[in-house]
Amino acid sequence: MPEAPESDPKTPYAQLLAELREVAVLSSINSTLGWDQEVMMPPAGAGLRGEQAAILSTLIHERRTSARMGELIAACEADADVMADADAAANLRNLRRDYDRATRLPTELVREMAEVSTLAMHRWREAREAADFPGFAPWLERLVRLNRDTAHALGVPEGGELYDALLENYEPGMRAAELDRVFGELRAGLVPLIRDLRENGTRPDTAWMRIPLAVDAQVAFNRAVVERMGFDFTAGRLDVSTHPFCEGAGPGDTRLTTRYDETLLLSALHGTVHETGHGLYEQGLPKAERFGQPLAEAASMGIHESQSRMWENFVARGRPFWEWALPELQRRVTDPAVGRLDVDTVFRGLNQVEPNLIRIESDEATYNLHIMLRFDLERAMLRGDLPVPELPGAWNERFRADLGLETPSEREGVLQDIHWSMGAIGYFPTYTLGNLYAAQLWEALRGDLPELDDQLRRGEFGGLLGWLRTHVHAHGRRYTAPELCQRATGRPLSHEPLLRYLENKLRPVYGME
Amino acid sequence: MPEAPESDPKTPYAQLLAELREVAVLSSINSTLGWDQEVMMPPAGAGLRGEQAAILSTLIHERRTSARMGELIAACEADADVMADADAAANLRNLRRDYDRATRLPTELVREMAEVSTLAMHRWREAREAADFPGFAPWLERLVRLNRDTAHALGVPEGGELYDALLENYEPGMRAAELDRVFGELRAGLVPLIRDLRENGTRPDTAWMRIPLAVDAQVAFNRAVVERMGFDFTAGRLDVSTHPFCEGAGPGDTRLTTRYDETLLLSALHGTVHETGHGLYEQGLPKAERFGQPLAEAASMGIHESQSRMWENFVARGRPFWEWALPELQRRVTDPAVGRLDVDTVFRGLNQVEPNLIRIESDEATYNLHIMLRFDLERAMLRGDLPVPELPGAWNERFRADLGLETPSEREGVLQDIHWSMGAIGYFPTYTLGNLYAAQLWEALRGDLPELDDQLRRGEFGGLLGWLRTHVHAHGRRYTAPELCQRATGRPLSHEPLLRYLENKLRPVYGME
User: Fold this and answer.
1) 10 Å Cβ neighbour count for A505?
2) Is pTM, for the whole model, over 0.80?
3) What is the per-residue pLDDT across B418-454, written as a single tens digit (0 to 9) for each?
4) Is the CB of B45 less than 8 angstroms away from the CB of A235?
5) Which positions in chain B touch A233 (Cβ < 8 Å)?
């Protein structure tokens, strides 16, 4: 920690950095235990794990909101020497924001939200199983009310709306009005594109996806791809869990998970590449020196998602990637059906566009319509414009209008996602923000890396990763996501790069070049 | 927790139990992280793991030695109702002992011991590699001095000697004079037994041990044995690590490790069975209700070791076990060399007695001579009767006398074990205590279970496990190890059962029935 010279260990800033590191180390324990819970823990260990997490969460929350933390932040802000240092000033800007937000929430409200959301998640599972929205509605109503109270306690940003106070939890600096504008423009281009593709009459061949492949062979192929992408296995792992995730516990320890299905040739690959995108961001943050400081943290959920989606979709659903990856796969698999595959078939199959009732099974284009729908509905619920009992009707109507699908039951409709039952309002938009940021960064980096496609055709990812390291990973939270976007791409966030990218990729897949 | 009724959550005893459980949950985190470190952690995560362990250890130590903990213990001791309850009284007896011992140690001494032993372990590794005892001697001298200071701070038990204060860390209630007596009697019988076997001229066939077996097949066989022994896999795991161990983190989570070598038919089996013995004890302690209370903790290291060694040696190196296990193995392995094996060959091969320079490679009989030698030498060093520079000479001389082997270098001699470099004096005797307790428990339980051999021949371990659950596991630390031995076997600790067992098993193996 360059700001904490050993000769003067007692400056408030040195004390602050030491305290931040301790809190981060405590948090990293919860991260490792969380990974263990999903990947290793025997089922009977669940009770103990809950006790461990509860004690750690209390310790962490106490330290993050302690009077001492507040005093140290204030002392540093009052120190002109500290604030003259750009790094220190960036840290303190974020720390002030986080501390104020954390201490503004009444303990009772935090406790109630935790309690209600735990019960609501159980109730949601039952309700989804039974396609019983009325059974879940009272819980959702409570959670919307609690979110409203939370938003009021956190405070509405100047010129903003209530929703913005919650959006700040996930996407600092973003505003609902801005999302509304960008999403609206994207939707205006996306709906006709998807209609054109559907009415085109052709469909890519996807039968090859159901070529079986033994799990061992899939594991070896996935691992080879992850390694080639630049993920450091001396500082990370790749394992199996029911729901794939990435856990960046701290310096030197970033863990990915995926899941395999031996009836599908590429069952795990895009999930694995997605999580590796998150993992490369975690490994690229300057944690070795700055663990615990905002400068070593991700800029936002949207930026995090931009990394995973860029690798998953822009790279691993792109033609150049498969010119390298298909021979790699064929080299490892003796099945002649795999040997007969060609890059064009794989590329087209991976880019089929087909409206799906389920968000997480959706393609790159229709996925965003799922998100916009959720954003509009949760914003309306929070505002009080959409009473919870009317939610399924609003959902189904919008689904029909945007995706042309009838929703047969609430299980495949409004009850499909866990997020609202966890009390998370303001989270969904970060998924489409991830796509938007990915596209805008992708355009910018392609300008800087004219050889990129040739490199991808050879399975060389160092140029791409290097650009992301320099323009995104290295900055941590030095800039907000909107600022980072402006700096890295020279433009504010826009719907155009994503729409251009989808148009240019998908129309040719459907023979409309 | 039956002692903490919800209607009166504020009694000092209820508060004490809640505090103990929190400390135990914090400790269990360190256990899980320790397991992860050996089994899962990527190498670059070592630095973060060290920071995690340091923070947790500090939190745990602060709570264990806090003024509040002392006040709660004292308040309970002063409460006649609490002390009238046998469970509560047993808990408090142990808590008083532990608290007093923990608070007697000056912080500075604890810090110095931690610091010196960390450095000494590094130095020991280098010294062992180079067979350079003089390079390690100054560190050992410091550690002996620190152990002497520690023993003085802890206080010598009445009528005891300095060594007893350290022995209490591992084997509460045991005394060096008692060890001296029992070990001496055992040695007097063991040395001539081993000489007879060596001079007998025959040697069991052990060539079959070098039949190779693929790791996958070994894993399946080991897992089947562990499951059959009664280890609950819904509350535990079996994985691979460089050094096998058992980690009983807490209720519902007990993890075993082993290691495989595909050039050896049974490479992992006895290590696995050993750790499973520890694991069955951990799973048998009443942690679900009493986690954090002494009543849910192991009685001593010696008792813990008695469980692992009983299963490893008394069961899995016994003939009845192999009448079940050999067909089980043969059923899973197609190699005709395995098919040709018979129970007698396996039984004799597994019970070869052959003095070995290395403790951890030694057989059931000679192993104890290794321990007695270490006990005598560390006791003499602590007392000041054996200057550290004279240690290698004393070691080699004793080795020649007891085992008839010349020690070619200190690497295979006095530098072979890590224990002293960790500052652990008083630990070694618990290994032979484990053998002694195992033999004495084994005699007692065979009296109670006349069908045992028939059960073992059918791979039925429930009778044995049930006896151990009732007579050992269920008690936790209700009794000291000497008391537990007396209650479970009707006699104080004696060398006779172990000597009888070894005589009765080993002479026939060498054709001296």
Assistant:
1) 18
2) yes
3) 999 999 999 999 999 999 999 999 999 999 999 999 9
4) yes
5) 42
